């Protein structure tokens, strides 16, 4: 039960004066999810995103049968929100959604989530960030990039994703002339993998 409470605390909750951290009700969560998927398929991505992102506030462990497959409503809603955010160019928020999926929903498809996190982490670290609303520039932060890549390495403790995250972190550190950070990332890589 402590593990369930810990995962619930990953979510900020809803409400102004009294915060509600309780998971969403099953009926409500399933209805929002189905409506959001309908909006997404009909091209109304902003409406879909609004509903999917409700699951960033409070968790839902409800599982439904959707299009012939069992779907964890909360985890899949966050994953879909991340994919929409990525397409819209809001890579940082997309990464945050994926990080929440990886931390809060251990039974969700971890490999798919970790691959998307690594892809976004690499984009954020190496590519020019898309402009907000098409004209407002977004600025990179090398320290944030390294922190994201370290989060991937910590969550994905395996030979498939963590070594690549540590290598990218070392590359960023070298580019930013932070040799101590680069050595730290490479030592972690050598010692752990």
Characterise this structure.
This protein has nine helices and two strands; from the N terminus they run αααββαααααα. With 193 residues, it is mainly α. The protein has a two-stranded antiparallel sheet with strand order 1-2. α2 packs antiparallel against α3 (45-52), α3 (45-52) packs across α4 (73-88) and α6 runs antiparallel to α7 (142-155). It is globular. The model has no long low-confidence stretch (mean pLDDT 84).
Low-pLDDT runs? none
Portion of residues in helices?
55-70%
Give the rounded overall mean pLDDT: 84
Give me the oligomer status. single chain
What characteristic shape results from the CA principal axes? globular
Q: What's the number of helices?
A: 9
Rg is 18 Å
Element-by-element helix/strand order: HHHEEHHHHHH
